[in-house]
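Data deposition worksheet. Section B asks for the primary sequence of the deposited chain exactly as it was used as input, without tags or linkers unless they were present during the calculation. Section C holds the resulting structure in token form. Section D is free text for depositor observations; keep each observation to a single sentence. Incomplete worksheets are returned to the depositor.
Section A, Depositor: J.P.
Section B:
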Amino acid sequence: MNDPALAGQSRTRLTTTPAPTAPARAGQSHAGLATVTAAPSTPARAGQSRAGLTTATAAPSTPALDAQSRVGLATVTAAPSTFAPTATATAPAPTAPAPTLVAVGHGSRDPRARATLGRLLERVRELRPGLDVRLAHIELNAPLLDDTLAAVAAEGRDAVLVPLLFAPGHHVTHDLPAAVAAAPALRARVAEPLGAHPLLVEALVGRLAEAGWTPQDGTARDTGVVLASAGSRDPRSGAETRRIAALLGERLGGVPVVPAYASAAAPTVPEAVRALTARGRHRVAVASCFTAPGLFATRAAAHAPWIAADPLGAHPALARLVLHRYDRARTARTTTPARELAAI
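Section C:
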């Protein structure tokens, strides 16, 4: 049943069984519980209105002060609230710079040699923008290898040494590892020499073409090629040079290619030319397996009875090969954590 209400009051039908609410002070409101059955309302003072409580169980409401209203509670039982920890965004760790590429040339008294290697390294930088690329020499030219490695170590950088040489010999297997060992603060790897690779063959063929070699010469019965290189007493060096010669012969269409050496090994360039001539190959070209002009390259070219190619220098394929050797050395697995030397 309904109770009478004071003037200005409105009676609201209760649709649930609300829990008893405590009186609230001025400006306060009570949240109602959602209900299914109605309970009788109680009088309220002037200016008050009673809001329907929507709870599971209803209880009689109690009077409230003037200007107050009672609002149904929305929950049956309240559980203490918990706060999840706020995730803290962390800045990504800075990426370590790529190791410095130290291109190691032999060195020469020929003033053209250093400038040629400089142009080669400019091509390397164009292919890999942002990579720190530096030139070093084993002897005769500045900067010397020891000085370059000391500068890299002083900057706190790692290094990959790429020999601008074509086969494993004393410089690659002894001089370069010794230079790394003399820089104890430096983490460095020694890459493989440029060696027998299709990119090297591409550069050799390109220089021969510039000297006048044509595709028809590769199938002619009177042509041959001498592959001139520096030479070494290390038997691995001779084996690698023979592999380069075989790849070059295949690329040229099957023409015979004879390796020859400027020092320390046989045959010499004149001996290789005579051997080809004895086989009826009177048009003999000399391919220059040197990175830059120098004494050995000049002597080899002087013995060419037909055409002589220039040293490989800044050929685009050679620049790509330098980066290929650098990348392989960077990712090679090693067993010495403090001083990482790639196996040759």
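Section D:
Confidence is low (pLDDT under 50) at residues 1-85, 335-344.
Residues 99 and 160 are 6 Å apart (CA to CA).
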